[in-house]
Amino acid sequence: MSDESPWLVVGLGNPGREYAGNRHNVGFMVADLLASRIGTKLGRAKRVQAEAGEGRLVGAGQHSGGPKLVLVKPLTFMNLSGAPVVSLAQFFKVPVAHVIAVHDELDVPFGQVRAKSGGGEGGHNGLRSMSKSLASKDYARVRFGVGRPPGRQDPADYVLSDFSSAERKELDFLVDRAADVVEAIVLEGVEWAQNKYHGS
């Protein structure tokens, strides 16, 4: 694998206005923020059910020529996310080690963002679809904590509901932090990102 290989950053979510504010769509929110940071717009990809955009990530001390990012929002609905991801990974010649999935995570409390490399999918249909299509689980994940549903609410209903009014007050800050974690993984690696962001 060449360090010059692009990075494929996949924001997981569901297409459609009715899902836009759902907990399950936080990956889309992070992808949109990253697009604005690197000065690109996400547009409909050719022959693939996804929105995508490309740009260079400029790190501290750099002015240009940073790693290339390909940002992706699959438009297939969550449980079929893998097909457009693998198509774009093949087209841009992105190795699995340079794929990052950004997703909501029930097992992480709201207010926390966690970096992880490989491992299971924790019942997340978007991750399950990606792992199957990529024939590998060895990609990085940025896990955006949404916490467990209150009472006996079904987890599926919970993630398909919007953030609460109290949560929305912190949401912009946390989406910003998740984008920072993605950039840290690209520039410094998962372990470095964990050391920097997991303690706070």
UniProtKB/TrEMBL annotation:
<feature type="binding site">
    <location>
        <position position="19"/>
    </location>
    <ligand>
        <name>tRNA</name>
    </ligand>
</feature>
<feature type="active site" description="Proton acceptor">
    <location>
        <position position="24"/>
    </location>
</feature>
<protein>
    <recommendedName>
        <fullName>Peptidyl-tRNA hydrolase</fullName>
        <ecNumber>3.1.1.29</ecNumber>
    </recommendedName>
</protein>
<keyword id="KW-0694">RNA-binding</keyword>
<feature type="site" description="Stabilizes the basic form of H active site to accept a proton">
    <location>
        <position position="104"/>
    </location>
</feature>
<keyword id="KW-0963">Cytoplasm</keyword>
<keyword id="KW-0378">Hydrolase</keyword>
<comment type="function">
    <text>Hydrolyzes ribosome-free peptidyl-tRNAs (with 1 or more amino acids incorporated), which drop off the ribosome during protein synthesis, or as a result of ribosome stalling.</text>
</comment>
<feature type="binding site">
    <location>
        <position position="79"/>
    </location>
    <ligand>
        <name>tRNA</name>
    </ligand>
</feature>
<dbReference type="InterPro" id="IPR036416">
    <property type="entry name" value="Pept_tRNA_hydro_sf"/>
</dbReference>
<feature type="site" description="Discriminates between blocked and unblocked aminoacyl-tRNA">
    <location>
        <position position="14"/>
    </location>
</feature>
<dbReference type="GO" id="GO:0016787">
    <property type="term" value="F:hydrolase activity"/>
</dbReference>
<dbReference type="InterPro" id="IPR001328">
    <property type="entry name" value="Pept_tRNA_hydro"/>
</dbReference>
<comment type="function">
    <text>Catalyzes the release of premature peptidyl moieties from peptidyl-tRNA molecules trapped in stalled 50S ribosomal subunits, and thus maintains levels of free tRNAs and 50S ribosomes.</text>
</comment>
<comment type="similarity">
    <text>Belongs to the PTH family.</text>
</comment>
<dbReference type="InterPro" id="IPR018171">
    <property type="entry name" value="Pept_tRNA_hydro_CS"/>
</dbReference>
<feature type="binding site">
    <location>
        <position position="77"/>
    </location>
    <ligand>
        <name>tRNA</name>
    </ligand>
</feature>
<dbReference type="Pfam" id="PF01195">
    <property type="entry name" value="Pept_tRNA_hydro"/>
</dbReference>
<comment type="subunit">
    <text>Monomer.</text>
</comment>
<feature type="binding site">
    <location>
        <position position="125"/>
    </location>
    <ligand>
        <name>tRNA</name>
    </ligand>
</feature>
<keyword id="KW-0820">tRNA-binding</keyword>
